[in-house]
Amino acid sequence: MAFKVTSSAVDAGGFLPCWYSRTSNNSSPPIGWANAPRGTVAVAVVCEGEAPGGRLTHWIIYNLPPEPPGIYGGLPVEPDLENGAGQGVNSFGVPGWTGPENTGEVEVLTFTVFALDRRLDIPSGSDAETLRRAMDGAVLATGGFTAKYLGNP
Asked: What global pTM score does this model have?
């Protein structure tokens, strides 16, 4: 069975509600996964956005436990979480989620979840490039979905 990734906040290909934008509550969305492969020790999530202004990293979170299979929305904006996960620094210079902005133009968000065969030995607050290097050779499976955001300017 394929590694499946969903969110109760948005259907794949749908529009992310403004609650998750940085001009509203800036709340991280809930993410769930199913059918993680045998041997999954940790999970990482990356959300990147493609907007007219360029590519942005909105969220980096890693060393999530594979069970329970998902994370609640509204995680704190800090590098270390109670469940042992770390949050990386996004394109906005802060750890954790920073949502899209109300620009009046569509931003396409890609949420990618990585099932890993080990916990990553990187410090909290690492950037996306550091995460990608650390995941080299550790990825058992990936899953994900895209969503769009269109806020009124």
From this structure: 0.95
